[in-house]
Write a structure and sequence with these properties.
By secondary structure, the chain is α/β, with parallel strands linked by helices. About 15% of the residues lie in helices and about 25% in strands. It contains three helices and seven strands.
Length: about 200
């Protein structure tokens, strides 16, 4: 737990309601994140949407993170100095907040990340669900938010994470014959894909 996460109301509400499923939490730059077991995902997500005090009616985004080479990739330096994006009269300040993933990168290769927003209360929450390389699967949230349908298809297409119970889990960005999942850290960058020509 970091950044005073234990005092944040949204994090405290989830920790109090689902103590067995919350693995970690942190608040970073004012953004609340809860790391939750996949076994508790559907129940926690339903609570976040249906409780009037929380009312997370909008699944803004769903993404994945592959931690296979996290912290171990070779560092590269830019060939040219990059000018600061800040105006000349402003100086960048070092951030005092830090955060940790909350689970082992070795045990859990992927995180499925949900970005939630409550339009009645104007608050946001990020849910992160760690999954292993041997079983990269989480339950679908299509029953709670319709938009999860396409988000989950995109995550499966790009990362190979499956969503059990999804009504139509198939590729969304790549073509059907595409082999592999191109945003995985171990995807071969020079891999040749089957050529697809016009159908006569």
């Amino acid at each position: 737990m970091g950044g005073g996460a234990e005092t944040r109301p949204l994090i405290a509400a989830l920790r109090g309601r689902f103590p067995r499923h919350v693995l970690a939490s942190h608040a970073y730059l004012g953004q609340d994140t809860v790391v939750i077991r996949r076994e508790g995902l559907v129940e926690a997500a339903a609570h976040l949407k249906q409780d009037p005090a929380l009312a997370f009616d909008f699944l803004m985004d769903l993404s994945c993170v592959d931690y296979k080479k996290f912290g171990r990739a070779r560092r590269t330096a830019p060939t040219m100095a990059t000018p600061s994006p800040l105006p000349y009269f402003m100086r960048a300040e070092r951030l005092s907040e830090t955060w940790e993933r909350g689970v082992s990168d070795e045990e859990f290769r992927f995180d499925v990340v949900y970005h939630l927003y409550s339009s009645p209360h104007n608050h946001r929450l990020r849910l992160r669900v760690p999954v292993t390389e041997s079983d990269p699967s989480v339950p679908t949230l299509c029953g709670l938010w319709d938009v999860a349908n396409w988000f989950e298809r995109e995550a499966w297409d790009m990362f190979g994470v499956t969503f059990s119970g999804h009504p139509d889990l198939r590729r969304l960005l790549m073509y059907d014959e595409f082999q592999g999942h191109p945003l995985r850290k171990d995807y071969p960058i020079r891999k040749r894909q089957p050529l697809i020509g016009p159908v006569n």
